[in-house]
Amino acid sequence: MRIVLLGAPGSGKGTQASLMVERLGLPHISTGVLLRSAAKRGTELGLKAKSSIDRGELVPDDIMSDMIEERLSRNDAADGFILDGYPRNLAQAKSLDTMLERFGQPVNEVIQIDVDPEQISRRLARLAKEQGRADDNAEVVRNRTRVYYEQTAPVIDCYTGRGLLTHVLGDGEVGEVLERILSVLNMNHTSA
Ligand code: AP5
User: Other C-beta atoms within 10 Å of 1: how many?
Assistant: First the structure.
Protein backbone atom coordinates (compact mmCIF):
# COMPACT_ATOMS: atom_id res chain seq x y z
CA MET A 1 0.00 0.00 0.00
CA ARG A 2 1.35 3.45 -0.91
CA ILE A 3 0.00 5.95 1.59
CA VAL A 4 0.36 9.73 1.69
CA LEU A 5 -0.30 11.50 5.01
CA LEU A 6 -1.33 15.14 4.80
CA GLY A 7 -2.07 17.60 7.60
CA ALA A 8 -1.08 20.98 9.02
CA PRO A 9 2.16 21.35 11.00
CA GLY A 10 1.50 19.69 14.37
CA SER A 11 -1.49 17.66 13.16
CA GLY A 12 0.29 14.42 14.14
CA LYS A 13 1.57 13.10 10.81
CA GLY A 14 4.91 11.98 12.24
CA THR A 15 3.34 10.50 15.38
CA GLN A 16 0.78 8.50 13.42
CA ALA A 17 3.24 7.38 10.75
CA SER A 18 5.57 5.94 13.42
CA LEU A 19 2.71 3.92 14.88
CA MET A 20 1.49 2.81 11.46
CA VAL A 21 4.94 1.35 10.73
CA GLU A 22 4.40 -1.23 13.49
CA ARG A 23 0.90 -2.12 12.36
CA LEU A 24 1.40 -2.12 8.59
CA GLY A 25 5.06 -3.10 8.27
CA LEU A 26 5.70 -0.30 5.77
CA PRO A 27 8.59 2.18 5.96
CA HIS A 28 7.90 5.72 7.20
CA ILE A 29 9.37 8.28 4.83
CA SER A 30 9.33 11.75 6.38
CA THR A 31 10.72 14.60 4.30
CA GLY A 32 11.14 16.73 7.46
CA VAL A 33 13.27 14.00 9.09
CA LEU A 34 15.31 13.44 5.90
CA LEU A 35 15.94 17.18 5.49
CA ARG A 36 16.88 17.81 9.13
CA SER A 37 19.23 14.83 9.07
CA ALA A 38 20.89 16.06 5.84
CA ALA A 39 21.25 19.56 7.35
CA LYS A 40 22.79 18.13 10.52
CA ARG A 41 25.29 16.07 8.53
CA GLY A 42 26.16 19.17 6.48
CA THR A 43 25.56 17.47 3.11
CA GLU A 44 25.22 19.67 0.02
CA LEU A 45 21.48 19.00 -0.08
CA GLY A 46 21.15 19.70 3.66
CA LEU A 47 22.99 22.99 3.42
CA LYS A 48 20.86 24.09 0.43
CA ALA A 49 17.68 23.18 2.31
CA LYS A 50 18.58 24.64 5.70
CA SER A 51 17.77 28.29 5.07
CA SER A 52 14.28 27.42 3.75
CA ILE A 53 13.59 25.14 6.73
CA ASP A 54 14.78 27.75 9.23
CA ARG A 55 12.39 30.31 7.70
CA GLY A 56 9.46 27.89 7.55
CA GLU A 57 9.40 28.10 3.75
CA LEU A 58 9.25 25.16 1.38
CA VAL A 59 12.57 23.76 0.19
CA PRO A 60 12.79 24.15 -3.63
CA ASP A 61 10.86 21.48 -5.57
CA ASP A 62 13.88 20.21 -7.56
CA ILE A 63 15.78 19.40 -4.36
CA MET A 64 12.71 17.65 -2.96
CA SER A 65 11.99 15.56 -6.03
CA ASP A 66 15.62 14.31 -6.22
CA MET A 67 15.51 13.43 -2.53
CA ILE A 68 12.16 11.61 -2.76
CA GLU A 69 13.07 9.75 -5.93
CA GLU A 70 16.28 8.48 -4.33
CA ARG A 71 14.39 7.38 -1.20
CA LEU A 72 11.48 5.73 -3.00
CA SER A 73 13.87 3.78 -5.22
CA ARG A 74 15.29 1.90 -2.25
CA ASN A 75 14.33 -1.74 -1.79
CA ASP A 76 12.40 -1.24 1.43
CA ALA A 77 9.86 0.97 -0.40
CA ALA A 78 9.19 -1.56 -3.17
CA ASP A 79 6.09 -2.99 -1.45
CA GLY A 80 4.73 0.32 -0.25
CA PHE A 81 5.42 3.21 2.12
CA ILE A 82 3.93 5.84 4.38
CA LEU A 83 4.88 9.21 2.95
CA ASP A 84 4.79 12.07 5.49
CA GLY A 85 5.45 15.64 4.33
CA TYR A 86 5.37 15.11 0.56
CA PRO A 87 3.76 16.35 -1.65
CA ARG A 88 3.33 19.84 -0.23
CA ASN A 89 2.24 21.71 -3.35
CA LEU A 90 0.69 20.88 -6.72
CA ALA A 91 4.03 20.71 -8.55
CA GLN A 92 5.26 18.11 -6.04
CA ALA A 93 2.03 16.13 -6.43
CA LYS A 94 2.62 16.06 -10.16
CA SER A 95 6.27 14.98 -9.73
CA LEU A 96 5.20 12.21 -7.38
CA ASP A 97 2.65 10.94 -9.92
CA THR A 98 5.25 10.91 -12.69
CA MET A 99 7.79 9.15 -10.48
CA LEU A 100 5.37 6.49 -9.26
CA GLU A 101 4.00 5.96 -12.76
CA ARG A 102 7.54 5.12 -13.84
CA PHE A 103 7.80 2.64 -10.97
CA GLY A 104 4.32 1.29 -11.89
CA GLN A 105 3.13 2.00 -8.32
CA PRO A 106 0.56 4.80 -8.00
CA VAL A 107 -0.49 6.31 -4.66
CA ASN A 108 -3.52 4.36 -3.43
CA GLU A 109 -4.43 6.11 -0.17
CA VAL A 110 -4.26 9.73 0.98
CA ILE A 111 -5.16 10.45 4.59
CA GLN A 112 -5.75 14.07 5.60
CA ILE A 113 -5.44 14.49 9.39
CA ASP A 114 -7.73 17.31 10.55
CA VAL A 115 -7.09 19.02 13.90
CA ASP A 116 -8.63 22.13 15.40
CA PRO A 117 -6.15 25.11 15.11
CA GLU A 118 -6.14 25.82 18.89
CA GLN A 119 -5.19 22.23 19.61
CA ILE A 120 -2.46 22.50 16.97
CA SER A 121 -0.96 25.59 18.66
CA ARG A 122 -0.78 23.73 21.97
CA ARG A 123 0.86 20.72 20.33
CA LEU A 124 3.44 22.80 18.48
CA ALA A 125 4.40 24.55 21.73
CA ARG A 126 4.90 21.09 23.30
CA LEU A 127 6.83 19.84 20.27
CA ALA A 128 9.17 22.85 20.58
CA LYS A 129 9.95 21.83 24.18
CA GLU A 130 10.39 18.16 23.26
CA GLN A 131 12.59 18.52 20.18
CA GLY A 132 14.03 22.05 20.09
CA ARG A 133 13.92 22.25 16.27
CA ALA A 134 15.41 25.25 14.47
CA ASP A 135 11.96 25.99 12.97
CA ASP A 136 9.91 25.96 16.17
CA ASN A 137 9.93 29.61 17.27
CA ALA A 138 6.55 31.37 17.14
CA GLU A 139 7.22 33.41 14.01
CA VAL A 140 8.52 30.45 11.98
CA VAL A 141 5.65 28.25 13.17
CA ARG A 142 3.21 30.93 11.93
CA ASN A 143 5.01 30.91 8.59
CA ARG A 144 4.94 27.08 8.32
CA THR A 145 1.20 27.20 8.99
CA ARG A 146 0.61 29.97 6.42
CA VAL A 147 2.61 28.04 3.80
CA TYR A 148 0.52 24.95 4.56
CA TYR A 149 -2.79 26.76 3.96
CA GLU A 150 -1.57 28.56 0.86
CA GLN A 151 0.37 25.78 -0.87
CA THR A 152 -0.70 22.41 0.53
CA ALA A 153 -4.47 23.00 0.66
CA PRO A 154 -4.73 22.74 -3.17
CA VAL A 155 -3.12 19.28 -2.92
CA ILE A 156 -6.01 18.20 -0.68
CA ASP A 157 -8.49 19.32 -3.34
CA CYS A 158 -6.52 17.56 -6.05
CA TYR A 159 -6.50 14.17 -4.29
CA THR A 160 -10.14 14.63 -3.23
CA GLY A 161 -11.09 15.16 -6.87
CA ARG A 162 -9.36 11.92 -7.77
CA GLY A 163 -11.28 10.00 -5.07
CA LEU A 164 -8.10 9.09 -3.19
CA LEU A 165 -8.42 11.22 -0.06
CA THR A 166 -10.18 10.51 3.22
CA HIS A 167 -10.36 13.03 6.10
CA VAL A 168 -9.60 11.62 9.55
CA LEU A 169 -10.23 13.53 12.77
CA GLY A 170 -6.85 14.00 14.49
CA ASP A 171 -8.25 15.20 17.87
CA GLY A 172 -8.23 12.80 20.83
CA GLU A 173 -5.79 10.20 22.08
CA VAL A 174 -2.98 9.15 19.75
CA GLY A 175 -4.22 5.53 19.80
CA GLU A 176 -7.77 6.57 18.89
CA VAL A 177 -6.51 8.54 15.90
CA LEU A 178 -4.44 5.54 14.81
CA GLU A 179 -7.49 3.26 14.92
CA ARG A 180 -9.46 5.77 12.81
CA ILE A 181 -6.72 5.76 10.19
CA LEU A 182 -6.41 1.97 10.17
CA SER A 183 -10.15 1.51 9.83
CA VAL A 184 -10.21 3.82 6.78
CA LEU A 185 -7.36 1.85 5.20
CA ASN A 186 -9.08 -1.44 6.01
CA MET A 187 -12.44 -0.30 4.72
CA ASN A 188 -11.07 1.10 1.46
CA HIS A 189 -8.99 -2.00 0.82
CA THR A 190 -11.70 -4.49 1.69
CA SER A 191 -14.16 -2.73 -0.59
CA ALA A 192 -11.61 -2.33 -3.42
P1 AP5 B 1 8.08 18.68 8.72
O2 AP5 B 1 9.06 18.09 9.61
O3 AP5 B 1 7.30 17.82 7.80
O4 AP5 B 1 7.17 19.58 9.62
P5 AP5 B 1 5.59 19.85 9.67
O6 AP5 B 1 4.76 19.42 8.54
O7 AP5 B 1 5.53 21.29 9.99
O8 AP5 B 1 5.14 18.84 10.72
P9 AP5 B 1 5.52 18.68 12.22
O10 AP5 B 1 6.66 17.72 12.32
O11 AP5 B 1 5.66 19.99 12.91
O12 AP5 B 1 4.16 18.06 12.73
P13 AP5 B 1 3.47 16.65 12.52
O14 AP5 B 1 2.20 16.82 11.76
O15 AP5 B 1 4.43 15.60 12.03
O16 AP5 B 1 3.05 16.35 14.00
P17 AP5 B 1 3.80 15.49 15.12
O18 AP5 B 1 3.46 14.06 14.96
O19 AP5 B 1 5.25 15.88 15.15
O20 AP5 B 1 8.77 19.80 7.78
C21 AP5 B 1 9.66 20.77 8.31
C22 AP5 B 1 10.16 21.68 7.20
O23 AP5 B 1 10.87 20.92 6.22
C24 AP5 B 1 9.09 22.43 6.40
O25 AP5 B 1 8.66 23.61 7.05
C26 AP5 B 1 9.84 22.73 5.11
O27 AP5 B 1 10.75 23.78 5.27
C28 AP5 B 1 10.66 21.46 4.92
N29 AP5 B 1 9.92 20.46 4.11
C30 AP5 B 1 9.45 19.26 4.53
N31 AP5 B 1 8.84 18.62 3.53
C32 AP5 B 1 8.92 19.43 2.45
C33 AP5 B 1 8.47 19.34 1.12
N34 AP5 B 1 7.77 18.29 0.66
N35 AP5 B 1 8.73 20.38 0.28
C36 AP5 B 1 9.43 21.43 0.67
N37 AP5 B 1 9.90 21.60 1.94
C38 AP5 B 1 9.64 20.60 2.81
O39 AP5 B 1 3.05 16.01 16.43
C40 AP5 B 1 3.22 17.33 16.91
C41 AP5 B 1 3.13 17.31 18.48
O42 AP5 B 1 1.81 16.92 18.84
C43 AP5 B 1 4.07 16.30 19.18
O44 AP5 B 1 4.50 16.87 20.38
C45 AP5 B 1 3.19 15.09 19.40
O46 AP5 B 1 3.63 14.34 20.52
C47 AP5 B 1 1.85 15.77 19.67
N48 AP5 B 1 0.71 14.93 19.25
C49 AP5 B 1 0.57 14.20 18.11
N50 AP5 B 1 -0.64 13.59 18.08
C51 AP5 B 1 -1.29 13.96 19.23
C52 AP5 B 1 -2.58 13.68 19.77
N53 AP5 B 1 -3.46 12.91 19.15
N54 AP5 B 1 -2.91 14.25 20.98
C55 AP5 B 1 -2.02 15.05 21.62
N56 AP5 B 1 -0.77 15.35 21.18
C57 AP5 B 1 -0.42 14.82 19.98
Answer: 14
